[in-house]
Design goal:
Layout lengths: L1 H26 L2 E14 L2 E18 L5 E7 L2 E12 L3 E8 L5 E11 L3 E10 L2 E10 L1
Antiparallel strand pairs: 1-2, 1-8, 2-3, 3-4, 4-5, 5-6, 6-7, 7-8
Amino acid sequence: MKKLALIAIGALFLTGCSKEKALESRLDNQTWNIAKYEYQLSNNGVVDPGQSISIENVGTVDLKKDGTGTFKVTANGSTDSYTINGWTTGENSVTMDVTDDDTKGKATWSFTVTTNEKKKQVWIREVTQGKFVFKDTYTLTR
């Protein structure tokens, strides 16, 4: 019985590593188009329709093999540009240390990756402040 449990744990560990490696290899040294950006603000679990947007073809995410890159979004006549100082992957996640190119402010962004395919990625970033949840969804394509 112990052998069976150890084999099951080992299989889970190897599966987790392979998912992480697959995600990393799909992102390494690649430029992804932000094909769709969606934003919504919810208050106590209720989405405010006036605080919800969906726009297409808004920018790029360029990830270098050395862990650096750029993240650029152009929407409503305004461009937000960030330098990626470092990025890492988890089994279903991407974490980036970024610097806003305008304000020089630094932040760490954590994304949950819900779709991890060769030509398509879906990344979700949620930030909770009290009863408010700010949700950004990026659909990336190559």
